[in-house]
Design goal:
Elements lengths: L8 H4 L8 E5 L3 H13 L3 E5 L10 H6 L7 E4 L8 E4 L1 H12 L7 H29 L10 H20 L13 H14 L15 H10 L2 H6 L7
Parallel strand pairs: 1-2
Antiparallel strand pairs: 1-3, 3-4
């Protein structure tokens, strides 16, 4: 049996199955990237709900795993060389798990780096901009009388979703015929934009063709449906 006692996070969120990969997360667009991939791969894992509404990412135990204080994070007792590996940043986790399982990341060098390119595009653009738009449209920022911040992020979000629209023209998935971690990186964010954030009109989502079809294909996958609910909200 694996010994996780060296990791403070395992004292606050004990592992029932310490031999399995441990996921510390919450069902946000960033969090569900990892639960979707884990469900798709079939890799055994154990999910722990980190209640971001109660600032649990800022506890000493969580910060010992991720000093940046954000979900998701993982602890793999069977990391490289058979040694435990702690990892944060959803993009890095996606790449690590895809390489670990040999799934959802092309083996061809050119296709592999192109897939990673689209993951980085989501990490650097789609996620941050959609998140800011959500803040200024739905959350505390919505109370600001000055709508220039909201409009700035709405304009950039509209531009980004059209980058995705163009990419998907003639393709079922971001990389073409193959569903990859690039799709998993983006699905939850687009779903949130038009659903939870209620910002479809702000980005003229109704004018798009390829993104809605891609989103419907993604949401129809059973592993995606399961992953969107993991870990359960408190």
């Amino acid at each position: 049996m694996s010994d996780l006692s060296a990791f403070p996070i395992a004292t606050r969120w004990p592992a029932t199955h310490p031999d399995r990969l441990q996921l510390y997360s919450f069902p946000t667009p960033n969090g569900v990237k990892i639960s979707i991939l884990l469900e798709e791969t079939g890799l055994p894992y154990e999910a722990h709900t980190i209640n971001i509404g109660k600032d649990e990412t800022w506890t000493p135990e969580f910060l010992a795993l991720n000093p940046n204080g954000k979900i998701p994070a993982i602890l793999d007792p069977n990391g490289p060389g058979g040694k435990p590996l702690a990892l944060f940043e959803s993009g890095a986790i996606l790449i690590y798990l895809a390489e670990k399982t040999g799934q959802f990341l092309p083996s061809d060098p050119a296709a592999r780096i192109e897939t990673i390119q689209w993951v980085m595009w989501q990490m650097a653009g789609l996620g941050p901009m959609f998140g800011q738009l959500g803040f200024f449209h739905k959350f505390a920022g919505a109370a600001y009388e000055d709508k220039r911040p909201r409009d700035r992020y709405a304009k950039e979000s509209a531009r980004l979703i059209r980058v995705l629209e163009d990419r998907l023209n003639g393709r079922d998935w971001i990389m073409g015929a193959d569903y990859t971690i690039a799709d998993m990186a983006c699905l939850g964010w687009v779903r949130n934009l038009i659903g939870f954030y209620g910002a479809a009109d702000l980005v003229a989502y109704q004018e798009l063709t390829h993104v809605p079809a891609w989103l419907a294909r993604g949401l129809a996958r059973p592993a995606v449906q399961r992953g969107l609910e993991i870990p359960p909200r408190p």
